[in-house]
Description:
The chain is of the alpha/beta class. The protein has helices at about 1-35, 50-65, 65-90, 115-125, 145-160, 175-180, 210-215, 240-260, 270, 280-285, 295-305, 320-340; strands at about 40-45, 100-105, 135-140, 165-170, 170-175, 185-190, 195, 275-280, 290, 305-315. It is found in: Cell membrane.
Amino acid sequence: MEFIAEYGMFLAKVLTFTVAVVVVIVAAVGSAGKSKKEQKGSISITHLNKELDEIADEIKGVVEDEERLKREKKANKKAKKQERKEKKKDKTESDKKRCYVFDFNGDARASQVENMRKEITAVLSIIRPEQDEVILRLESPGGMVHAYGLAASQLARIRSLNIPLTICVDKVAASGGYMMACLGSKIIAAPFAYIGSIGVLMQLPNFNRLLKEKNVDFEMITAGEYKRTLTMFGENTDKGREKVAEEIQGTHDLFKGFVKENRPILEIDEVATGEVWLGTEALEKKLIDEIKTSDECIVDACKEADVYLIAYEKKSNIADRISKAMESAVDNSLLKWLHKSPRDHIS
């Protein structure tokens, strides 16, 4: 038992040292990155119809007869030329429907909202509300309330103009992720995507007793009765715990109200329990509208519209990339631990 205890202490020291080193590296790299002038980004646009056609042509070039392929290409070229001529003659004819696609892969701080807000601003400057639509491919297990509140507010800009907004979820839209998803005029999800988790969570360790055992005093001076309710190192009180519980309940009530306002067909008290459902179950609960993957959604859209993938790409140096990679790894590890579910594994 003594060996196990010593080994446990050794592992704890190694873990503490590793975390300390990572924190120092992140701070140093981040500081180096900030000392340089911030690089401006740019919007990249990918015509997905063209991309799909090119893939199809590559496959046809291998599996189909060469002569038949030549005839087909010639016929397609002639048809496109005729289509361009007709459009020039009839200038009053409305353009083909356009569909704009965004991607949002959320971390704990919803940091991608900085890119998404620029993408949305760019598209809203040219979109035709009565004709075009938007698709968001969303993946997020949630995170900070204020961060996901801002992300949801960006999507509300689209809905306020009565522009159709389809939200596609292939893996997860939970907690703050569902706060964003509920703004969709249509929500589709893959059969085994995680949907829901309409709840609020706060948890932290408290080392006060450990500090007392080691004869370490912790001093904290505040002004304002509830300036600091729960701490990691001070002695927490029942009054502080009650205040935090009250704040969390208030946030949950606001969350429920927001979801209900944007998706009124929900029985909100039934689904706002913090539970997570798989796609097929979420359909029964009316959390989503259809079972389908984002790939199917994009292919279907390409049949009737010109589909464009919009992405804001910010130039970054090596220091920025290392810093973001480390921060993302820590965020994702914490989120996986916080949202761990018995359904995460099958055997």
